[in-house]
Specification:
This is Outer membrane efflux protein. By secondary structure, this protein is an alpha+beta fold. Helices cover 58% and strands 10% of the residues.
């Protein structure tokens, strides 16, 4: 069984074979003249032999040593070439000095969302709004102070009337009043009730609905509906938290993914840049054709373009994440690149319960069904009021009064205690207002009932979709891991073949690109799994902060680290046996029978 080894073994051989001055000069050099000569040169350097097997290679090696001794001109040329190269500064994602404890976790983001996210803060004002509306609804039962002062100072009848009193409506619709009034002067004969004795008049009044307005009235409906709003405030907060936490989780995992992809692209670029340095050294030594160096420089430029594109996406994801990650003042906090976790948490399947049990628990936790139920109760109150409005208005009224002081007139008709009691009523013959209100509220209740049924079906569908996505996403992660391991193994073998001139740079580039794409697929597969986990938790209506802390407590994944896949460290058992490789390569290149 052939095993893998990294391409960096070439650089180690060059370091032992060439002087430090030669390495400095070799930073601007053209590529090999052929794959075969490159293979011979690599074998010569690796074995430590100073004499080449053919005369051409030996002469070229002597010329290279002469160039090493006279390195000042080459250094000037190298400096000039470096000045012509566009400046490229990659973003450092995984700083060795940054420990795992200082990385940003999903729990940090959700905790910041709980404290400072504007939509959550807006939803947390709902209880105060509802309580204020409830207080306002109770304002219909406030005791009111009333008064008047009416003066007819000109005309045949000159009189003055003043009064003050309090009125209040009780919970059952009773209307109570108490007051004092005084009327002095000359009054029209048809307005003699306005006149009082010298000391004025004290009066108590009462009005009690007997039919319409007795069991329920608009004031009580307003209080009941405002009370329901206070209960609906908590589900509104939970709804805002669930929606915001799902968006925050998606933004966080997108940021982690973008950072890992950026590191993978930088890794691919590092391969080309390292190989380019090796090519320059050998071209300076006259052992490499310039065409391969030009091709490698093209690969470097292309891969730098991909790195820049990945940087753009990574920075954009950081800006988006800052909407949910905020400082103590509540301002958006753009996370630095060093906060990106080195690895995703381990993909751990949550405990599976029966679908019916999960659905029942989700329906009890999710805020949407509760909000619809509260709306139905509010409309039912309007319907009860409309049914009560069909009844005729029949009110019991009563009034007692007593004049005080000396008689105002010679008839002395104001001094006795007076009692007035009776009923008054009213009924609209068509009763269209009440009947129309009943019809509309009944239809609204049916609408809300259908919306509630649809919402329950949607919750069931969301749970099914999330369960399915979570299960299949974990399988995709497993397959992506297998694919990446195979891609790295293939790349290592073909890199070994490239060192021996059996494949060209173009084919090696294809394999490197394929391995890089496979690594990115594994990164995206892990992101999809955690996105599915966030959807699953929201579908079940679980507390976002508790779930985020559970995810943050998961151990790091044992999958290959992002940005450390292609540049993996060589293990003792990973050295490829040349004899086994040659035998296997002959089988690989043999024509099919």
């Amino acid at each position: 069984m052939l095993s893998s080894r990294p391409i960096n073994r070439i650089a180690m051989a060059l370091i032992f074979a060439l002087t430090p001055t030669a390495l400095t000069i070799g930073q601007e050099s053209p590529p090999l003249d052929s794959d075969a000569s490159f293979a011979r040169m690599m074998m010569l350097i690796a074995s430590g032999d100073d004499e080449a097997t053919d005369s051409g290679s030996g002469d070229e090696a002597d010329e290279a040593k002469a160039d090493v001794r006279d390195g000042s001109a080459s250094e000037d040329r190298s400096a000039g070439a470096q000045n012509d190269t566009p400046e490229f500064t990659p973003i450092e994602i995984f700083d060795p000095q940054v420990t795992q404890a200082t990385t940003l976790t999903i729990a940090d983001v959700v905790a910041s969302l709980y404290r400072h996210y504007p939509k959550v803060m807006e939803a947390r004002q709902e209880p105060a709004v509802a309580r204020g509306e409830l207080v306002a609804a109770y304002g219909a039962y406030d005791t009111k102070l009333q008064g008047y002062s009416l003066n007819e100072a000109m005309g045949f009848y000159e009189n003055y009337r003043h009064g003050i009193g309090v009125v209040r409506q009780s919970w059952w619709g009773t209307y109570l009043s108490a007051g004092y009034r005084i009327g002095r002067g000359s009054f029209q004969p048809w307005y003699k009730e306005r006149e009082t004795n010298r000391g004025g008049e004290f009066k108590l009044g009462l009005g009690q609905p007997l039919l319409r307005g007795f069991a329920i009235d608009p004031q009580r409906v307003a209080v009941f509906q405002a009370s329901i709003e206070t209960f609906a405030a908590e589900p509104k907060i939970l709804q805002a938290l669930l929606n915001a936490s799902r968006d925050a989780a998606n933004s966080y995992w997108e940021w982690v993914t973008a950072g890992a992809i950026l590191q993978a692209q930088q890794e691919l670029l590092t391969l080309a840049e390292t190989r380019g340095e090796q090519f320059k050294i050998l071209v300076e030594a006259g052992k490499f054709a310039e065409i391969d160096l030009i091709l490698n420089e093209q690969l470097i430029a292309e891969r730098r373009g991909k790195v820049l594109e990945s940087q753009r996406k990574f920075q954009a994801s950081a800006f988006k994440l800052a909407l949910y990650l905020r400082n103590d003042l509540g301002n958006p906090l753009i996370p630095p690149a060093q906060w990106v976790p080195r690895q995703f948490p381990a993909v751990t399947a949550p405990p599976q319960e029966s679908f019916n049990d999960q659905l029942s628990a989700a329906l009890a936790r999710r805020p949407e069904p509760q909000l619809y139920q509260y709306q139905i109760r509010q409309v039912e109150l309007d319907r009860r009021l409309a049914c009560n409005d069909r009844l005729p208005r029949l009110d019991l009224i009563g009034e007692i009064s007593q004049d005080m002081g000396e008689a105002a007139t010679s008839s002395r008709d104001k001094g006795d205690f007076q009692l007035v009691i009776g009923v008054e009523g009213e009924v609209p013959l068509q009763r269209r207002k009440a009947l129309g209100k009943i019809q509309s509220t009944t239809a609204k209740i049916r609408q809300l009932t259908e919306k509630l049924r649809l919402q329950r079906d949607q919750i069931a569908t969301e749970i099914q979709i999330a369960r399915n996505a979570l299960e299949l996403s974990s399988r995709v992660v497993d397959q992506a891991e297998v694919s990446l391991e195979a891609a790295i193994e293939s790349l290592d073998r073909y890199s070994f073949a490239f060192e021996r001139g059996k494949v060209d740079l173009i084919y090696l580039n294809l394999l490197e690109t394929k391995a890089n794409e496979t690594e990115i697929k594994l990164i995206e597969a892990q992101r999809d799994w955690f996105d599915a986990l966030a959807d699953y938790q929201v579908a079940l209506g679980l507390d976002p902060l508790d779930q985020a802390m559970n995810v943050a407590a998961l151990p790091p994944s044992d999958l290959p680290k992002a940005g450390r896949t292609l540049l993996h460290e060589q293990q003792p058992d990973d050295v490829i046996d040349p004899e086994e490789f040659e035998s296997d390569w002959k089988k690989h290149t043999a024509p099919a029978e």
